[in-house]
Amino acid sequence: MGRLFGRFRYHILVFFAVIGPGFITAMVDNDSGGIFTYSAAGARWGYLPLWTLLPITLVLIITQEMCSRMGAVTGKGLSDLIREEFGLRVTFIMMTLLVITNFSNVVAEFAGVASSLELFHISRFISVPLSAVAVWFLVVKGNYRSVEKIFLLASLLYVSYIISGILVKPDWKEAAIYSVKPVLLLEPGYIYMLIGMVGTTIAPWMQFYLQSAVVEKGITAKEYAASRVEVIFGCIMTDVIAFFIIVACAGAIYSVAPKDIQDAKEAALGLKPFGQYAFLLFSAGLFNASIFAASILPLSTAYSVCEGLGFEAGVDKRLKEAPIFYLLYTLLIVAGAGAVLLPNFPLVKMILLSQVLNGALLPFVLIPMILLINRKDLMQEWVNPRWFNLVSWITVAFMIGITAALVAVTIKGT
Amino acid sequence: MADNVLFFTELLGMPVLDLKGRRIGRVKDAALVPREHTSRIDRYLVGGGDAWLTVRYDQVAGISRDAGIRLSDELLVPYHDDDCILRIARDLLDQQIIDVTGRKVVRVNDLTMEIRQEGGRATVHVVEVDIGLRSVVRRLLQGGMPGRWIRRVQEPIPPNSIRWELCNVVESDPLRRLRLAISYQKLEELHPADLADIVEDLSPSEREAIFETIDSEVAADTLSEIDPKMQAAILESLEPEKAADIVEEMAPDEAADALSELGAETSEEILEEMEAEPKTEVEELLEFEEDTAGGMMNTEYVALPEGASVADALAALRHNEDLLEQLNTIFLVDAQERLVASVPLARLFIAPADALLKEMASDPLIQAPVDESQDRVTEQFDKYNLLTLPVVDEEGKLAGVITADDIISVLRQK
Q1: Which top CATH class is B183-287?
Q2: Which of A220, A390, B62, B381 lies 20 to 30 A from B333 at CA?
Q3: How many residue pairs bridge chain A and chain B with CB atoms within 8 Å of each other?
Q4: Quick check: ipTM above 0.90?
Q5: Residue A16 contacts B, CB cutoff 8 Å
Q6: Percent of chain B with pLDDT over 90
Q7: CB count in 10 Å sphere of residue B46
Q8: Residue A1: pLDDT band by 50, 70, 90 thresholds?
Q9: Dist CA A369 CA A371 (whole Å)
Q10: Cα distance from B225 to chain A (closest Cα, Å)?
């Protein structure tokens, strides 16, 4: 019995030793763009889109699992591997695209910060610069362990969406039915919405961030089983949050009068009649999600680029040792936050643009990933089993198709 | 720039001309044979039609950036891969190597080489490995504009290169390492803490390769400087005998810490391979809980009978020369081995040879029981400004000592 307990304790310890990367990545997936997409879906179509969450979770798990496996087995980041196997030129092009894409994402996150705090009557000219400075200091001055703890704490704050979803008192029976009952309406608006939901699920930066974080954390192939549990758990939690966002907007806005909302702020305001708390929690959740993603995105971008191009990187290095890393990191934050403050800056368009760019870059990240993970010399016995390859190629083809459609739809729509 | 300088990117794609000046193909790669010569390019791999041909260094009459490679002998053999060659484009370019003087891991962007004329023959020697922005620019532009322009464009960027002799290639396959004459002797001269930083930047298989080959004592010192989680992963990857050799050389407390991170089975295997004396010491330490004084202490101390004089102390120190670097306190014990006093080492210098150590003891005697909590121990170090704290068992017998460096590690990990 004691032995059994000992073993159990060992597994628990291993689990806590690896928790962090998978969970954080999955949570940040629900950033300001994601929240907007889910809110809009719930506000316009009510409970109907809920069924998509199951397949979305599956797709998310498959792609995230591959990255964390590659990180654990090779001990190298994704951009490292791309550089070593595909050369400098491919890496350079990919990194350039990644910087552009992630920059638009950073702008979108700061836009989220601005609009969520405007709900609390705080001017964006105060909130955005303060957030930018806070984010910069948090990452540069804190060490990895404490920063990760703060990130994990921020992940817990997503609970606010669950609570606000419950406060709205939605129709649970209907929510339960439509969670498993696929409904396909042949209306353009509905199809656009479905594409948008799947398309926001996987962003290129996540693959880079997750793999680097797994490596940074020192997770080994042996501990990988525990890490996989974490990744799966994280992905499920992501979509549980998404479920509650949709349900909240379905209960509060759709059931009163279905309408097209323009940004997440509008969704929060729609919750107001259902009590101050629902509104507050929803808005606070939006702020948390935006600033959380705004902390991770610039860091992850600077890391990936420097890793891939062979420049020194890391917040544990001094400015003089890793000048390009700090320059890129700082520039992304300053320019990202600055863009939001420009007069007449098209915030909503920027969020849409970030989605288009994410989608356009995705195939160039997913295809090399599958090629790499099938290399026996890199992955040894950890290469994809055949059935998994089949599933991941289908997933990738599906994701590419969906995001291409999203890109086309968004471009046409604007 | 001098005309005899040739960058590897310029060599790639260079035309190869036969005796009559006809082009047979272009350079696809070049290779060193380290067993023959450490820096001379031994073979040029030339791609013409379907198969690659090998041009040996003694078949080349002249090399110039404008005219390409002129052969002096046309009897070329088809290229076949063999384990003794280090192919530059395949094995070096874009890969990570160790910069021994800079004490870091760097990524190879390009190589600076030198053309030497030796009696009607032209040979190419690798001089430097290029890292940094200048070589990135050079490689990205290669093929996009004439070579002369590229040299002019890159000229203003400050070079960032490492001398070839000071580079260490990392190869995880032991057989190939032998054939390529790769050794890690240069690494053994580094400070263990620097080597630890380097090792942490490498992938798991590369880490294993280094620990397998370097001297056990250096390996032990290096391992002590590595994060405990990674320590465990490294020990696990080694053969138990090699792991045991390394663990034997470690300070017993650090050895115990490292082993306690491993699964029971692996640490048992390693202990079994160890010599009797270090093994019992480590096993004793393993009995204690990690976060108590017993788990923190080591057994490397000097204890003398309470009646000992300064002369006795000096004699004892001569017998324990390997401890001197860290030693700052001598302990006095009674006939039952109970701790009675601690004497700061520096006092010995100003005392006459026949003086009794007891008279120089610190007052009050500060000690900790083996089951004292880690926090309390840390507090005592802070309160009494300690360098060394003796730890005693239930009967008051001296069991071990905790030193300030243990406390620093504990604090850093918080």
Answers
A1: mainly alpha
A2: B381
A3: 49
A4: no
A5: no
A6: 14
A7: 24
A8: very low
A9: 5
A10: 15
